[in-house]
Amino acid sequence: MSKGGERPTFLPISSPFAFSAYIKAVAALLIIAAIFTFFAFILNIFGLKAHDLHRKYFFYKVATYLSLLSVLLELISLVVFPVCFYVEMKNFGYRNWEFDWSYGVAWGATLFTFGASLLLICDKEHEEVYYKEKTIYNPPPELS
């Protein structure tokens, strides 16, 4: 406990809006998106290891949906956070403010997750078939 019986703050800012509901909601959305991305990664590995085509496409489909849902949650959180932060800062009278590097990293993670989703959506139904072709040379009739 800190002096005066107050709760210690672990955030670098000590302002009254440090524990606002929108910050908790955005953090929860990003944590859920990270969990969905992890499960999509695991299901993609299962899809790569599956030999049965039905199971393979099932794993790919679920991984695709999870990664797209993860992108949606990340986009919602990355749009809601600056809007609510702007309103909060305007109410407190701050005119100049800027985001930290972690906001840019979150946008980068969103773009990479979207890229992974696009790769999962790409043509999976086309299985390459490898076969050996035996070539038979028929000699000309004058040599037989």
UniProtKB/TrEMBL annotation:
Subcellular location: Cell junction; Membrane
Biological process (GO), any one: cell-cell adhesion
InterPro entries: P53_induced, PMP22/EMP/MP20/Claudin
Membrane in keyword set: yes
Pfam families tied to this protein: PMP22_Claudin
Keywords associated with the record: Cell junction, Membrane, Transmembrane, Transmembrane helix
One GO location term (cellular component): membrane
Its membrane topology: Multi-pass membrane protein
Membrane-spanning parts: 20-46, 58-81, 101-122
Similarity comment: family membership: Belongs to the TMEM47 family.
Protein name: MARVEL domain-containing protein
Protein species of origin: Ascaris lumbricoides (Giant roundworm)
